[in-house]
Structure formats: C-alpha cells, structure tokens
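Could you please consider the sequence and fold following this short note?
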Amino acid sequence: MKIETLEQIVNGITPLDKSLGDKIQSRLDNLTKPKGSLGRLEELALKYMLIKTDPNPKIPNKSVFVFAADHGVTEEGVSAFPKEVTFQMVANFLAQGAGINVLARHVGADVKVIDIGVDADLSHLKGLIHKKVLRGTRNMLKGPAMDREDAIRAIWVGAEVAKNAIDAGVDILCTGEMGIGNTTAASAITAVICNKTPKEVTGRGTGIDDEALKRKISVIEKAIKVNSPDPTDPIDVLSKVGGLEIAGICGLILMSSYLKTPVVIDGFISTAGALVAYELNPLVKEYMFAGHVSVEQGHKIQLSHMGLRPILDLDLRLGEGTGAVLATNIIDAGLKIYLEMATFDDAKVSPGENQYGSPK
C-alpha cells in the first residue's frame, strides 16, 4: 500500500502482536538457567522478537541515522559552541572521525548522516543524505522556530529515511542527531509536553557555565511565553519551539512503528523527537527501546512520561546516537542467549523444581 500522508502513518500504527509471546517465553524459561535469571536480556529479546513477529530471528542489521540541523536560538548564547560546529561535525561524521563512528564500528552498525537543516551549503559533501528542509530554524525567542508546514515536511523526511532503510534490509534503526543549540529546543518541547518548568528540564548541553545556564532557562521561558505552543497539539509544539532534526527523528520513529521495525532512541534530543511521536500516537512506545539515560536532567522526565526504561546508564551526554548504538549490543546479547543457549532437553540437564523452573 502506498504511503501518501502523515496521517496515514500515525493512524496506521497498530498494537504489538503478542501472539508469539507464549512460545518465545517458553523457550526462554527452558534455557539452562534459573527461570528469569538473565533479567532484562530476556525481556529485550522477547520485545525484539515480538516486534519482528519472528521466534527465530537473525542477529539484526543495524544503522544509526544522524539528523543534522541548525537552530536560530543559538544567537542568544545558549551553547558553548558556535553554530559552525554543526557543519564541521557533519564533515567529521563523513570522515569516520566522530564518537558515533567509533562506537558504530564497535557494534557493527552503519552510520547514515542526513542534512535536514544545516545552515550551510553541503551539496559538495559525498556520502551525505541531502534532505535539507530549511537552512536552520528561526530564533524561537522572536517567534515560531518554523512554520507548521516545514515541521511536517521534516517529519516526512525522517519517515522516508526510515522506509528506505527498512526496505533495504535494516532490522533495527537507531536515532542520532547533531545541531548546536538543540538541547534548548529539546528542553522547550519537554517542558511543554511533560508539563514541567524549563528549569526542571534544562541542563548544561555542551557544557555551559552557571551564567549561561540561567540565560538558557530564561530564553526557553520567554520562547514558550512568546509562542504559546499548544500541549495538546504536538506538531504545534514542534514547529514553535522545536528543531528540524527533532522532527526528522519523530518521523523516523513513526515510520519504524508503522512498519513494525524496532527503533532504539538515543539521548535527550532524540527523546524529544520520540515525545512528539508518542503524543501523536502512544503506540510507538511498543516499538521503541530507550538506549540509555543521559546526564541531562530532563531525559529521565521524558522517559518517565512515556513509561520507557533505559537499557544503559553510563553518564553519557554526547548525543550523535552513541548511547543508542551501544544499547544494540545488549539487545544482540539477549538474542544470542535465546538463539544459542541450550535448553534443558538439549543439554540433558534435569531442571530443579525450585531453582530451575518446573519439574518434568
């Protein structure tokens, strides 16, 4: 069926099919170990197989999608770095020199970089996915960051990227981003959707000092007041105080959920995109893994709002998809336990009544 509208994707997301749950759980319970003793490894394997509707999966092909965009609000001094770092880091990603490149190699994931809104001409860069919607957002302190139509276009870019990847055989998608100023946008989105004050959800981002943090919180407070985003309309929130890369991540999550493909979300900015997707259709939660919880104070609030439990807690705050790709290693481990570990019958081991499940 041809996918023609965002509404078709949002409304077409269906609950997880749990019909294979008993069969998968039975094998997990009959592996040569005390029942449930591998904890979340078993939980993650079960969820992955339910999403894929496959009780005998292969170890997944993995890709991380780094959406890059600039933010007009950087002119208010909310970041420790100038906006030029965005396009400089895009070049670094393509040269395989960034943190995400190293960790993606470590877990066997491909890195795909998407220019969805960098305020520079990157048409000469080979290997970049060119999907620019705008050359950065406007300064949200002076009005909406972007028009509603542009926010929808950016969501659609993310959806197309996801569909192309899934059609090409990617089994698990990871979200990543790059954009100086994007923790400001993510904080604003989180404050509105989660009904928190900017102070409760705003952290230091790239490492700003106390004075800059106060300024950042003030900018977010004023931007919310100026724009009056409607918390019941997630696209209104996204367009008024969000970012293009956040919109792209939202679209990637929506399409992955629509096509019943697992998606691992990264840190604070990625989870802002997940929040928008969740508000559009809460069923996306069933197809998402929370890769990690970052040191950004608003991240725990985001995850709690959606009822997601992070896989890792490593005090990460880099972004780029680093925590998400690391978490795929843990999902792989759970799947390998399920696929490769002997059952009691295989090993001719007699299960004990108390420690090792039910007796024969």
